[in-house]
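tool=predict chain=A
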Amino acid sequence: MTSPASPPRPSNGSRADFAHPAVLRHPPRADNPLVIPARTVRVDLPRESPAPRGYDVVIGPGLLAELGPRLASLSRGRRAFLVVDEGLPDLVHEAAEGSLRDAGFAVTTSRVFAAESNKTIDTASRLLHEIADTRHERADPVVALGGGVIGDIAGFVAATYRRGVPFVQCPTTLLAMVDASIGGKTGVNLTLDASPTGTKKNMVGAFWQPTLVLTDIESLSSLPDRHLRSGLAECLKHGIIAAPADAGLFDWTRSTLPAFLAREPAALSELIERNVRIKAAIVAQDEREELPSRAGGRALLNLGHTFAHVLEPILGLSPTRDPELAPLQHGEAVALGLVAAAATARAMSRLAPDAEEAIRAAVRGLGIEFPLPKLPPLDALMAAMLHDKKTAGSALRLVLPLSAPAGGWGGAAVVENPPQTAVRAGWLALSTPHV
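tool=predict ok
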């Protein structure tokens, strides 16, 4: 049974506007020298019982053809509720749906318009009613096929329906592959008022870890350039916080940008694996973001995000100043947030000038322009930051990049109550020409 498809919504950057190569319905032959082998990263979670907890993130080409058999080996359920980005080419979701059916699953497919404006309680409610109509049982999985918006909504449905059903992530955007699909954060946005900053990102949600993350890099073939660059912004973030474990990741990512933008499979596969390993290690240490701020932990993944979450709901804002491309995508907002965080850290003498300049240059290398026109007044931006989930009472917490004492990247740290003058310097880095 397939739910009626939503009317098509053409928009700038929609995948419907891009040709998509045939998605393999059979796994590639291992003896083909052109085949890129699959890579697997294990996400080990803290134990709550004697049994180990965790899941695999499998990265490689042609993996959607393996979705059904892999899920059948992990699940006792025989129904699958497939939540699909309606902008995906038919070949992509047909590959996933066909693999599930071939493995014996009864599949219900629901299409969702993948936009932050649609990541709402109303959308989640619609999906919950649809899944209830299928008599979905507690062993039956929910499968997300799309980017971060789809994963967040579908994961929230999986976490709340019958108090939790198995959940599988099949990310199709780079941002989701390296970040959003890993770690178990699910949720929807909440609009508190009609002001430009009145919508709060992910204010309603739950931690619900997936059973499996299946990352088919062939789905990046149809990803619009803007979406690819958005994902690369998250990779830059990981590159900063990776030090000292992977101290060269930021510089390698920046120098390899041309290969990523050319969608070279080997380069993308390595990029995704290295980023997944960074996030997996942090999630294993701090699954629910409960470590004290001085210990860092999962909170470090929010580098750039406090600024980004203020920027995203401001309608009409676009990194290329083109109103047809507004509003900001999440990764673009994170990239701008990195610029602001770097300026804040430099104003506090925690980041060297050359490191700040490297971050600014890397963001511009993604084609993301700043300073930005028509930002709200500084006081409004500063006040909006206090709605961030990382605040404690009225105390702002910011994740800031650091320089190592001997030079080079020093990772990142959570800073409580940073000086307002330094935070203002962060916003000014986005609103005034750099001196």
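The chain has two domains: 15-223, 283-431. Residues 15-223 form a domain with the Rossmann fold fold (CATH 3.40.50.1970).
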